[in-house]
# Entry
Amino acid sequence: MFQFVPTALQRLGHASVAAVQAIGYGGALLAESLSFAISGYRRGQPLRAHAIFEQMRQVGVDALPIVGALSFTVGLMLGIQFMAALGEFGAQSQVVMAVAKSVTREFGVLITGILVAGRSGSAFAARIGSMKVSQEIDALGVIGIDPVRYLAAPTLIAMLLMMPVLTVFANALAILGAALYCSPSLDISVAAYLLQTLQQITVGDIGQGLSKSLVFAVLITIIGVGTGFGVSGGAEGVGRATTRAVVMSISAIIVADMIFSYFLNR
Amino acid sequence: MSAPPPIIEVHQLQAWYGARQVLKDIDFQVQRGEIRVIMGGSGSGKSTLLRHLIGLQRPPAGSVRVLGIDLARASVGELLGLRKKMGVSFQGGALITSMTVGDNVALPLRELTRLDENTIRIMSRLKLEVVNLGGFQDLMPAQLSGGMVKRAALARAIVMDPELLFFDEPSAGLDPVVSAELDELILKLRSALRMTIVVVTHELESALKIADTISVLDQGQILVTDSVLGVQQCADQRVQDLFHRRPRSIEMDVDAYMKRLTDERA
# Structure
């Protein structure tokens, strides 16, 4: 009668073991990538600057238009909401402060993270997954090229360099978007709005966003690359891994963001 | 005078996929300079044996020594040194699809040596000439025919002038003329470059043409290892089945059959 209890427990057990395994695997992948970046050259497994630059272009430069457009839109949206909400009790002059803090601490980096996870996290998983399926990863291994050094490490370094850059860019465009909407109602020029913003944000605000961007860079890379290396089962497996990488990295980003916000604002 | 030590030494090797044993206590030696063909039908475990010989899988029991190095106990540095001395041509080619044929062939030189770019270009084109692909270096792998992919993969496998070459299914999926050309190429490589070559195949004709010695693998066991003539005269029923293309005579175990049909947890 209670046969479903052991099967449900079994499933929970399997899921827990799988989760711990995935976290352990991700940690090992991160440690190995960093160790190749630091000491790969001495061990005859150097990181190629060319590969890092190529990845930086793909994850960073190519993402500028979409990151810019969406942060600008989010900035406009925040301006509209804050004007309405703060206007209700006559605190419209606080809009500059509210937008500046919320964008630099939260929205800039979160929008960037979600976009990069969707664009590049899926691309990492698909690229490495299809290489796994066609035995290219095996081929690299037997040639003597460590796949982690060749594929994961340059991606991680490129992400760690480009995520903060994208975040700063997103912050700027979001604040510009808010400035364009709010300055007429506040009776100040756009330039004056931007000047006020610069006066009111602190290094701490920017630092919060940037430190998060580094954490997001690690999460997106490790989840994307890790699911790619874990692919089995042909083209269908690659498709599944791609979806999984995007869903998991966006979830991880949002949870990590919440945890960070909690500890940084106590 | 004692015989020189074998270049490959496999001792009591076992391999499992889950609960199914695919290699059963394999003992296997290859002498320097010979062309050894590993023959067997599909599911005989020959691909698994190859994966162990090239160090892609760790043996749960038994040992594999290649060029005097125990693969399971070797340090990372020793393994890297060994990989430089062996080449592998995979069944599907496993060329990196995002690189041109020329870059694929040059990849081991670029990543594992400190030669200058001119030398690398000349050496990789030289190897493309050896496999009759001169002038094709700027094509992408997707633009090549099946036979050309195999030859390009072979060029990549021999670009470091390895002592030991592994070739997985040279004639699978190719027409008879192209596969005969590949057989010629293998013989040419041995005489010109003095390589020891291990070929895994299920093609009887090409096995008889290129082999010095043949190992016949069936259901995870080596039935016989001998010269071509010796294997042809081998009295074992399963070896004769393979050589005369007869369907396998399947022995029926009634109890096991009933158990497979009725067991709930099979």
